[in-house]
Every structure is written in structure tokens, then in C-alpha cells.
Amino acid sequence: MSEITPEVVAEHGLNETEYQRVLEIMGREPNLLELGIFSVMWSEHCSYKSSKKWLKTLPTEAPHVIEGPGENAGVIDIGDGLAAVFKMESHNHPSFIEPYQGAATGVGGILRDVFTMGARPIANLNALRFGSPDHAKTRHLVSGVVAGIGGYGNCVGVPTVGGEVNFDPSYNGNILVNAMTVGLAPANRIFKAAAQGVGNPVIYVGSKTGRDGIHGATMASAEFDDDSDEKRPTVQVGDPFTEKLLIEACLELMETDAIIGIQDMGAAGLTSSSFEMASKGGMGVELNLDQVPCREDGMTPYEMMLSESQERMLMVLKPGNEDMARAIMEKWDLDFAVIGTLTESGRMVLRMHGEVVGDLPIDPLAEASPEYDRPWVPTPARDELNAEDLPIPADTGKVLHQLMGSPNLCSRRWIWEQYDHMVMADTQARPGGDAAVVRVHGTGRALAISTDCTPRYCQADPARGGAQAVAESWRNLTAVGATPLAITDNMNFGNPEKPEIMGQFVGCIEGMRAACDALAYPVVSGNVSLYNETNGAAILPTPAIGGVGVIDDATKTAGVGFTEEGVDIVLIGETTGHLGSTTYLSEIEGRSDGAPPVVDLEQEKRNGDFVRNLIKSGQVTVCHDISDGGLAVSVAEMALAGGIGATVEQPSGITVPLHAWLFGEDQARYLVATASSEKLLQDAQAEGVSASIIGRTGGKTLTLPGGSPTSLGDLSRAHEGWLPGYMAGTVN
Amino acid sequence: MKAAVIVFPGSNCDRDVQVTLRDVSGVEPVMVWHKESSFEDVDLIVLPGGFSYGDYLRSGAMASKSQVMREVVKRAGNGVPVLGICNGFQVLTESGLLPGALMRNANLKFICKDVHLKVESSQSLFTSAYETGQVVRIPVAHHDGNYFAGEEELDRLEGNGQIAFRYVEQDGSVEAAANPNGSARNIAGVYNETKTVLGLMPHPERLADPQLGGIDGKGMFTSLLESLS
């Protein structure tokens, strides 16, 4: 009887139509190994079958883009003959099942995507979303994910410099762990995956192959249910020490000109790496599985090809370089094996013990990779919320205190103090500001890096939310004086087979496209994670944006902390008092209705360009963007960061209700502190930028209009206290 | 001042200290791979931070048995100054060049932040550019920095002036709250008996450049430069 029963096909995540295509391509029934290869190559995770149609609509080009989507990571020119190589990738499903290893291997995987291209990783960030703080699993997941990210990143010696964290009940059964790495490479020496040259050796380096992570990519393409814990064996185990050796060994080998193509073994391990290398180079490949370094005896071809053991790379070398390359790998105590050769057959032929155990055509499999135009329905528009319909709080100072100590606005120090954020000695702006600033080693430049997304906006209005995520990223880089250059996107959504979910995806893409276009801020890499659902309940749509910008003169930058007493605080941008879908609304009123703020991209650009010029010209060194919690929260963060208080006053003639003025989340706004506000206001007027003085720094208290003064000590205890208290189990 | 920086597999602060040594002394340090059994004559040997051999065993334990450490121990015995930072400190206690042991942090978590240190004495090769009792701000970044030694041993170290640095509040007071990892008597760094070997958990090389937010760590390298040139 055939081993390929309908049940086996279904277990491999292929539907009937897809299996019919397998039969057509093969011209016969596949064996189990071949079926497994189709399964992973056509999984949502590897094939982007639901998202491809829409991803293609995002802008990906700009003069500074060296390599857009399609390679292991995006590459942009940052001047001085150097390139920044970066990408963000999800490790959501594994991190929920096994938080420490799931998060750790997420970091490992994204590091490999970057150094595969010849770049030395210089910064890690991570965008994390957890369930409600009062959900039984949340503490355990926060603790494990943070320890896993630290455990891996700290050991490999790449600083973890930033990121973001949200808590929301929609993530209760499906957390998001999105890891981003930025690396540096010579702009004219980028390594790619394409294999070339018939007869050239295919080389395996790194760790040995074990039985871990088999079918991880298929798992990552399915929904969760109550039995998901049983999937723990599909999670890989990370070895950051070997990763560190692999980074150094690969970069050393890349200094020679021996490498033709190189690809890390990520999702679907040896299968996808060899397949992609051959496919991109238009080659065939023959692998001798007897040569694959294995951790244990008796591994089957199926296990070897589908294992997701970590810290492994595949490369094609120019012939005659094997001994030199082997010597480098041996210096670093890494395995090195010639496991195959390139052919002109256009087929992937797998041999073991002298027999052919698999034989598949490469192009037909890659080209026939399914692409779906999934049905979608637009997300119904919400009514705009009128701030005047909300009660006016009795004491705005108390409101601020509550917001500053709330789970979604409190300090993330408890997290980032567990990450080595200073190793490599180039971290100029540490976590806690608008964007991390990391020097470009050996030059006068620096990179600014940030991750951003406001999922509740995306839920309320996907197009506005998608645009806002991109705009906030651009704004955060601008707020440290950087010129934003490009983004990587990590699209986390529910089940795309549901038209409502697909509608969220389409809407977010639409908003992102508009913002990327208006801000000349293209997408150069990304990752899609779908089926983020448990028992049919989807996460909030979460298109996490990782932005990278350049600061040409690293001495001209700005920080969020007040540095001087008695100077004016100037608000840049227009305030209409938008309270729909805000943090104020959910924290104080316990509601989450209303449309999210509109993103006026023209204003965004005008205001941002104005602020950036103030910083670049040295006129401003204290700047903070306004986002969650509005103006009042931004002022409070500036006061706490600098240890200097402030008094805020509403300028005369403002008709916006006080609570909406203080806590509204209108976009395209910044706060700066300056001793020469008069000149700034004149310049702003000349540029058509709205600007007004809203207060003055000084003292050790923060006073809002309509509120009792709050001491910085009290505010700091609220802001710094919640997360450590929660993790220790003393507060909920 | 010619310095050697020992590079173990898994060292990750080797470049950071190389940069600081080069900036301060103007002399390019020699980087020595762990498989070497000898290296050129130098004025100073530095064991950098990181996770030598992954530190999957006790931190520093594998590195203390490496080929190159035999040579380091020999030279330390001949009086060549040795500085061990973070993982380097762990290697020094594991190899017996310094007393005590470094256990897992009391809160069991990796911790990375600036701390305040009191310079116990300016009378050493490593601290002559500081004042005795001066409080400096220098970052820590470790999982295993909880210094331990028996009470008698600690008394002896204190009596001999072998305590180099203690974790303190900004005003110099020795408080439990200032101790990031549970170290005995807030000890952040210790000397050998002749004060030619120093191990400390904090990373002076990380705050030795004003662009990174402070230069309190630079004094250690200028001290060495003055003493060894």
C-alpha cells in the first residue's frame, strides 16, 4: 500500500488541489521525503502564498536601496562605502510553545539572515506582544521570552538596543516575538544566495544536524488549539556560542573571494536552503546525504532534509578553495563537509547509501508555488469619537500618574536591563528613547533604529493603522536627528482564509504603501506570519515596522531627557484632541471605540523635516515624538529621563477640551526643549509648521493644567514600578 | 605600553578593549588566539569579557584550562600585569590567579546597567589616575558576577588592601541597594597579593569615550599607561 495516504498529505499541510499539482509536477506519486519537501516549500511560511499578491504593491525602490526584498535581508547604502543590512522576522509560534528557546532561536535566525549577506551584525531589536497581564500564562511567557532573547544575544555579543512591548488580550493564546537585526557590510561586497557553476562544490558548515525542529515551518503555518503544547518537539534549540563562532568564521571566509553563493539554513533547513540556492542560480543540485554531519546515528533522509537544527549554513565555493575554507572552519571548531555538487539537470537529486532517495524538478516546484488571491472584505469604518462626549477628569495629574504606571506605557527597564545593550561599545543612545543610536564603527556616522506599530489602530482602521506604523517609525528616527532610509516589515495577522482577516491585511498594506510613498521610505525586507489564532480568535493586526536611518554626524543628535532648567517646551505639529482608540480612552474610560487618528502624510513630512533640520544644525538637542498617551505622557517621559520637572500650560485661544489636548494622540507631533524658542517659532512659521510654547522646564515636579502637581519621585515610582512588581507577582 | 588581548572562542569584548587600549596608548595591542602557547613579550595582558567556550560549564572554567592560559599564569607569576574584565575576571578566579569565585547573580538574571564604584585605593598600577575613595560610574553586564569568598578570606583580602572596587551609591556609601548582584561585601573587583593582577566585573572600556556618555572607565587605562610606559 502507498505510504502517501490522504491523511499523510493532510498532515503535511497540503490541500487536495495542491496535492494534485504535486502529482502533475512529479509525474508520479512522491515518496514521503519528496512530499515533505513540497510541504515546506509550499507552506505559507516559505511561499508567502496568501500575501504575495499584496506585498508586491509596496514600494521597494530608492536611490539608496542596494537590495530590496527577495534576498535574506534588505541592503541600503549609508555612505562611506558602507551598507546597512537588516530584516525583522517573527518567531511567534515557537515562542508561545517554548518561550526561552523560541525567542532565542528567533534571534539566532535573524542574525544569520544578516551575516549570510556578508554583514557584521551590530544591533538587535525586538517587537514583543503579550496577552493580558492578568492572563495565567503571561508572566511565564514574558519571563521566558526576555531570558531567551538575552541568553542568545548577550552570548553572541551583539547589543540588543531597542524594541517595543504591548499587552493585549488578543495575544493571550498567541504572542508575537519579532526579532530584528542590523548589520554593516562593505557596500560593494554583498553576498547572495544564487548558486553558480556546474560541478562546483556545495558545502555544509556549522553545527551538526539533529532531529529538532522537524516541520517547524509547517507548524508556523497553522492555527493553534488546546493541544498546541504537544508541538513542543518542533521547536529548535539554540546554541549562541556556535552562532558566535559561525559569525566570525563566515566573516573571515568572506574576506577571501572563495564564496559564490551562501544561504543560512533557516525554516525548512537543508531543503529550503539548497532549493533556494539552486533555484536562484538556475542550477540543479545533487546532494549526498551520507556526508551531512549528523548529531546522531540512523537519521533518515526525511529527518535530515527537514530538520531545523540551528547554526548551520550552506555555501557554494569556487573550486579549489575547499582546503582553505575547511582550515578556517576548523580554526573555529566548526563542522565542514562537502555534501554535493551543482549540476545542469535542473533537478534536486538526493542520494543516500548509494541510492536515489529523492528526485524533484526545481523550477516547476518553485514556479508552481501556490499564489492565492484570497477573498477579503474591508474592515467597517468606525465613527469618529467626539472628545466633548467624554467626561472631563477631575485631576489631570492623577490621570497622568495612572497612565505612566499602566502596563502599556510603563518603563521597559526590567526588560532591557536583561539585555547587553552596550557590547561592541558603539551604543550611543541606549534603550528608552525614541530610537536607538548605534555608531558606525570607525566612522563619524551613526545609525538610528526603531521598531513601531500600534495594533489597536490597525484593528480600528487597518489603512490608518498601517500608515501610522510607518509614520511613527519615520518620526522616531527623525526625533534623534536621523534621515530615515528604509524599513523592514513583519506582518503578523490571523487566518488569511477568513475574509475579515484578509481585509485587515489588505488595509494595512494600503496604509503602509501610502506612507512609504509619501515619506520616501521603502520596504527592503520583511516577513509574514499568518494563522496567529487560537481556537479561532485572531490577534490584533500587527504590521511591525523596523526602521533604519542614518545620522551623518553622530555628534549632532537629540535625546528625550530635559537637560536644562528654565527653558521653553515647544510643541511642533497640530493638536485636534483625537481621543478615539487611544490609550487614555482604554486606561481611563475602559473603552476602545472610535476611529484611530488620521495620518496626514504631508504634515508628517513637513514637520519631521523641520525637526530634523533643527537637530542637524545643532539648534535642538532635546526632542521627543508624541505617541501613546499624548502630549502629557511625552512631557513626563522627558522630565523623568532628565530628572528635571516642568510646568505645562495650554496656550491661549485653544478650543480643544483640556483632556483631549493633554492625552489625545494626534500624529505628526514632536516636543522640543530650547532656550531660543522665539527663533524656533519664527522659523516654524516661515516653513508653514505649526508650533507653540506649551510649558517650561524646571523644578522636581510636573504640573499639568487642571491637575495637582506630581513629584518626579512619585511619577518615577509609578513608571518604573509596574513591570518589576508585576513580574515579581506583587501587582497585577 | 604594549598589551596583549587574549581571545577565546566566545570572547565578545575583545574588540572593545582593543579599541580603548589603542586609543589610550597609541600602540596597537596584539590579539592572542586561545590555541597559542606563547606570544611576544608585552607589558600587560588583558582577558576580555564575553562567554568563553559558551560558558556552558561554570563561567570561565573551560577557558582557565586553555592552552594560552598556561602561558598567562606563568607570566603573571613573573610579575606581568594582568587585567581581567567580566568574563576575564571569572577566568582569573577559575585559574587561581585571584581568590574567590563568581556565582550566579542573586536575582538570577543577566543585568546590564551603569553602577557606581568606589576606588578603594589609588595605590595600584590600575588606579593611579583615580583618587582614593573616588566614586566612578561604569557599566556592568553579566549573569555571574556574585563575588564569593569565605569570611576569613574576605577579612584577609580587606587587610591586605586587595579589594579594588566596591559597588556603592552615588555618594559613596556602601549599601545593599547599590549591589547589583549580591557580591560579598559589595566587592566589584579584587587584586592578587602583589596587586599586579586585577579582576573586576564592570566594564571600564565601555565608558572611555565621551560620545558613549562618560569617560570614568578611561582612568584605568591611563593609569596603566602611566605605570607601564
What keyword list fits this structure?
heterodimer; A: 732 residues; alpha+beta; seven-stranded mixed β-sheet; 25 helices; 23% strand; B: 229 residues; alpha/beta; nine-stranded mixed β-sheet; two-stranded antiparallel sheet
Give an overview of the whole structure:
The complex is a heterodimer of chains A (732) and B (229). Chain A is α+β, with helices and mostly antiparallel strands and 732 residues long. Chain A is built from 25 helices and 28 strands. In chain A, helix 7 (99-115) runs parallel beside helix 8 (138-156). Chain A is globular. Chain B is of the alpha/beta class. Chain B contains six helices and eleven strands. Chain B has helices at 14-25, 61-64, 67-77, 87-94, 151-159, 218-228; strands at residues 3-7, 30-33, 44-47, 82-85, 101-103, 111-119, 135-142, 146-148, 163-168, 187-191, 197-200. Chain B has a nine-stranded mixed β-sheet with strand order 2-1-3-4-11-10-9-6-7, sandwiched between helices. A two-stranded antiparallel ribbon of chain B has the order 5-8. In chain B, strand 1 (3-7), helix 1 (14-25) and strand 2 (30-33) form a beta-alpha-beta unit. Chain B is globular, with a radius of gyration of 16 Å. Chain B starts with a strand and ends with a helix. The interface between A and B is medium-sized, with 32 and 30 residues.
Radius of gyration of chain A: 26 Å
Strand order of the largest sheet of chain A: 8-10-7-11-9-12-13
- Contiguous helical run count of chain B: 6
Instruction: Spell the H/E element sequence of chain B.
Output: EHEEHHEHEEEEHEEEH
| Structural class label of chain A | alpha+beta
Strand content of chain B: 15-25%
Structural class assignment of chain B:
alpha/beta
First-residue to last-residue Cα separation of chain B = 5 Å
Q: What is the mean pLDDT of chain B?
A: 97
Residue share in helix of chain B? 10-25%
Oligomer status: heterodimer
Largest sheet of chain B: 9 strands, mixed
Sequence of strands across the biggest β-sheet of chain B = 2-1-3-4-11-10-9-6-7
Q: What is the end-to-end distance of chain A? A: 58 Å
Q: What is the CA-based Rg of chain B, rounded?
A: 16 Å
Beta-strand content bin of chain A: 15-25%
Figure out the total of helices of chain A: 25
| Stretches with pLDDT under 50, minimum 5 residues of chain A | none
Shape verdict of chain B = globular
